[in-house]
Amino acid sequence: MPSPFLTPGAKSQLDSLALLSLRRDQTIPTILQLQDEKNPGYKEGKVTNTRFGSFPHSTLCDQPWGSQIIASKVDTGSRGRTQSKKLKRKADELDSSTQAEDKWTPSPQTPVAAASGFLHLLYPTPELWTASLPHRTQVVYTPDYSYILHRLRARPGSTVIEAGAGSGSFTHASVRAVFNGYPSDNQPTKKGRLGKVCSFEFHAQRAGKVRDEVKEHGLEGLVEVTHRDVYEDGFLLGDPKTGKSPRANAIFLDLPAPWLALKHLVRNPPSGAESPLDPSSPVYICTFSPCLEQVQRTISTLRQSGWLGISMVEVNNRRIEVKRERVGLEYENIRGTVVFPKSVDEAVERTRAVEERSQLFRAAQNPSDGESTPAPNIESEATKNTSTSKPETETLDRRQEPEIPVYKQGRLMTRSEIDLKNHTSYLVFAVLPREWTEEDERRCREKWPSNRVQESQGPLKSKKQLKKEAKEQRNQEKQAQEQPETESQRE
Amino acid sequence: MHSYVRPHQYVVLRLPSEFTKIQKIEPDSTVFLGKFGSFPANQIIGRPFYLTFEILDNPDEKDGSCLRMIPAAELHAETLIAEGEGDGDEPDTNEDGTPMRTNREIVDDASTQKLTWEEIEALKREAGGAGREIISKLLESHQALDQKTTFSLAKYMLRKRRKYMKRFTVLPLDVSVLTNHMMEDQGAARIMEMRDEMIGLLGCWGNVHHGGNISLDDAIAAKPNGRYLVVDDTGGLVVAAMAERMGILYPHDGDDYEEQGSSDEPKKGETEQAQDDEQQPTEPSAGRPVRPAHMSASGNSITFLHPNKQPNLSLLKYFGYNQDNPDETHPLHTHLKTVSWLQLLDPNSDPIYAQEPEVIPDSELYTMKSNKRGAYHRKRNRWARVQSVVNEARAGEFDGLVVATLMEPSSVLKHAVPLLAGSAHVAVYSPSIEPLTELMDLYSTPRKTAFINRRQQLKEQKLQQSTDQDDTGANEPQDSELSELMDEFYLDPTLLLAPALQNSRVRPWQVLPGRTHPLMSMRGGAEGYIFHGVRVIPTQQTIQAAGNPSRKKRKVLTQQTPTPTVDSGSGADVEMKS
Lengths: 491, 578
What we know:
- The structure holds two protein chains of two kinds.
- Helix content of chain A is 33%, strand content 20%.
- By secondary structure, chain A is an alpha/beta fold.
- Chain A is extended.
- Residues 82-108, 378-401 and 485-491 of chain A have low confidence and may be disordered.
- Chain B is of the alpha/beta class.
- Chain B has helices at residues 72-75, 77-84, 117-126, 132-140, 150-164, 175-184, 196-205, 218-221, 237-246, 255-259, 331-335, 341-345, 351-354, 362-367, 370-395, 409-416, 434-442, 445-469, 478-489, 541-546, 551-560, 568-575, and strands at 9-14, 20-25, 30-32, 38-40, 52-55, 67-70, 167-172, 227-232, 301-306, 336-340, 398-404, 420-430, 496-510, 517-518, 529-535.
- An eight-stranded mixed sheet of chain B has the order 10-9-8-11-12-15-13-14, with helices on both faces.
- In chain B, helix 4 crosses helix 5 and helix 18 crosses helix 22 (568-575).
- The longest helix of chain B has 26 residues, at 370-395.
- The radius of gyration of chain B is 31 Å and the shape is flat.
- The model of chain B is unreliable at 86-91, 216-221, 256-287 and 544-578 (pLDDT under 50).
- At the A-B interface, strand 1, strand 5, strand 6, helix 3 and helix 4 of A face helix 1, helix 2, helix 7, helix 9 and helix 10 of B.
């Protein structure tokens, strides 16, 4: 079965993983099936219930990926009562009412579209999967694994060792990186090999979960899960002592003590066992540790065992929210706005208006108090003015409003998301070059004699220059043929 | 993969000063490293990558070799020694815990170094030992050396070593190394200041990967896998990065596995097409081997959209691919397709696409001169190629879109997003945030709501008009409707789900015994942002459903998403998402 992660095809298929995207950061992974053994009772077969409605899988299957799917009217209330009818008396009473509803639905199998609610049907990618996977351990998130895989040179055809499969987010990301074809029995003897991920997990239950996931996601043959304590037993596939070497090009260690695993990752293990590393290529490593103390021990061990180019980094990633912020006095009673003067002018105007009104109010309260009380006729005039002018400005505002559509109001602002991931882990990178013996060096020197140098190449020449030179050379050769004496003299 | 240095290959030489130099390794030539000296290229051909060499002053008597491979233990010698001494945790402290040696007594003064400038210059000319001699002389004649703390001494040594050691490390030229090289040494502006971590992130969010060996399941899927649309104004860096992810960048990929152990030939000839799964390498026949045509791959391909008449992919030369004169054995020859924006949007204005060269019957062709016949075939082939590539691009159904452009990203997405298949991912890089906030705004939820409502409104208007006139045109007015909508909204915001914006930065640390801290300085400049979204296929039905939702339902939905709309009631149904 092709994996929906790697080759999703054009449409969603039965028995394969699909992601139901409800909204940003809310995605439900589900295996598309017509019938659900674990949860029978729906007339429509397997149904996924969400806060935005119910979705029978018959409406999700064989749809183009990316489709917007409308929720269906599903009777979630009477679920399960078909079996437990006799057990519950109350259910019996209610049953009559649901039967009445049954007459409403035209046929028990075909779902009816609901009035509202929908989701988007997406094929899984490691990114979406990482955001929606069931957490078992700390997850390696996209900003980290994207950089790690890039630095590890995990490319199509590589073999990656992953120790500490954890929640499987890195497993999915790395299998996408190394994938260059599904293994098949009648594999043609082509050069190059198929990319593979060898995943090691010392927690039996987690290893089993990862194995199930690999199967469900169509990644069998691409990911090999081994339940193993790698500190003790190393990285050979199958039997820890005599097993096959994975011939890894890249290694990712998400372990509490990566330095304990490093003794197995050498070119020539002292025990005489086969090395798990690819003898024909450099091997890249990355360890993922949250604490500085772990990093120091790891790096110290890496130095002792001959790894080169050792570097340590941390990745800082921020998600940024973009919103239109609407500030102004005209936004009264509108949600998501700040009712506050948007400028000094507006503030002054408002204060002036308030001041005027309070003056009038005071004047009306105690007309005898003030010495310079304005004449009552003027006062009434003033109140008239303000009372008429006020609604005018308000109506003006309202009239202006529809001119700028809501989605263009306010100013575009950016800010970091509220829950910032300040630290994930420290990443230690290193590379172990191919082994190079004196014998190799001797052979290489024979093939490429050290002191054979034709002519020192100066700065790069343009095509024109080269042509010109070639022409000159030809002329010279001609001349040389004509006058061999001068040639010998020159030499 | 990159297991040893091949002749005629570009490699990167890293010098002690951390300066990197791109060098094409031609057999029998000399490589110059400025003040660090020079060496014959033959002495690194065939050797593994990541090794560090020292340039010797006196070449080996026997075979003239002047490079010495430095073992890893020697490279790490000093840090390992320091680690051995008291674990480096609290170096140089008295019993009461105060540092024993401080810089209290040190006066900043040029007189501490007793060697004069002239003497040092003379040393540089004469001294041997690949720079070690100079450094030891400098240390000897430094007056205040004993006052230095261990740390400052180490720093001093490091500084001098960077300046005088005649060492270099050979690195394979891959996308990561090239990016760092461009950022450090060359104009970073040429690659839009795209850092290495951004390239990794861009590829992941774009979901760019190998399309797989579709042989058995091909019939079922009926859709070629792994077709990506790339807009790249960095001179080919993004194309190279995506090609690397798809396994079509390196011509010798996968060769190493077979060759290992045997003392390999320089190259068995260019007849080997590396790991191309859809096109089986054709058997080299007696004459010229038959090759798959230029830009002919059906899957696992990159379609590169370029603004000018000719694509700018100059950086691909470092990977052995020259756009003007493509090497037929290179995987990019078949898997990289180039289409200009003009060809995409208005193909009939493009003379190459629109004007079919006349077909000359074979009988007449035989009478022609061979060079004329060649020109005829070239023209025919070019026309056929452009036709198929452009038609294929216009048909769309791409699996992903990756953008790093100097143009307005919104203008790119306006035309490119409709060409994507459903659920395809879109990733846009920009050195600064402003173009991407604009993009976020164009795909904002209030805009989506307004768009859907407006479209519904227009539809109803049109429906009324058409029913007034006649019944047949009821379903027609899609296009005019769209143009009106586009005037108002610029692009269709409903085609992209969950637009998100992020930024990422890698912070390097120094890890040494007792001296672990983030590096003191790093590159500033453009921050670098990535926009991401998923192409979806909006249904037309929802709009009907939104017309008359029950009172209760609407309330529930508006509670779920507090959207900043004025009249949230009308838009509730379409707003519940993203």
